[in-house]
Amino acid sequence: MQITKFIPFYILFIVCPFSQTFSQNFIEPLSIDSIMMGDKFVGFLPEDVEWDYNSQNINFTWNQDNTSRDSYSFSLSSDKIKKLSAFEKSSLLPTRLVYNKTKDKALFTKAGMLYLLEVKSR
Q1: How confident is the model at residue 9, as a pLDDT?
Q2: Has residue 20 been placed in a domain?
Q3: 3 found inside a domain
Q4: How many structural domains does the chain have?
Q5: For residues 33 and 41, is the Cβ–Cβ distance under 8 A?
Q6: Across all residues in the chain, what is the average pLDDT?
Q7: Cys staple from 62: which of 46, 79, 118, 121, with CB 3.0 to 4.6 Å?
Q8: Residue 101 pLDDT class (50, 70, 90 cuts)
Q9: By the 8 A CB rule, do 92 and 59 touch?
Q10: Nearest alpha-carbon partner for 94 in 63, 38, 54, 61
């Protein structure tokens, strides 16, 4: 799935001229029970979306397979989504950094600890 080329599924039915015929043949009519299913009916949206420290990845949580919300990363260079392991998730730098005046050092907290990061120019 490519995020940059993502078109919501319901937009296809509005735009496509054959949508009425398609929807009559393949989609069941809406019922109160199906509407009340909420996210289980329409799918779960990504949450906690934020840029990675290096601005090369977009990190987010997502319940993709309807089991549990896991952490994912979308790489701008490879245009792919990758599920993050627990180690990869714990090694991510926070996006909320407090910089000094010269912006060569930054402070952040993680798991109750205070860290000093020396920022190198790109």
Answers
A1: 45
A2: no
A3: no
A4: 1
A5: no
A6: 75
A7: 46
A8: very high
A9: yes
A10: 54
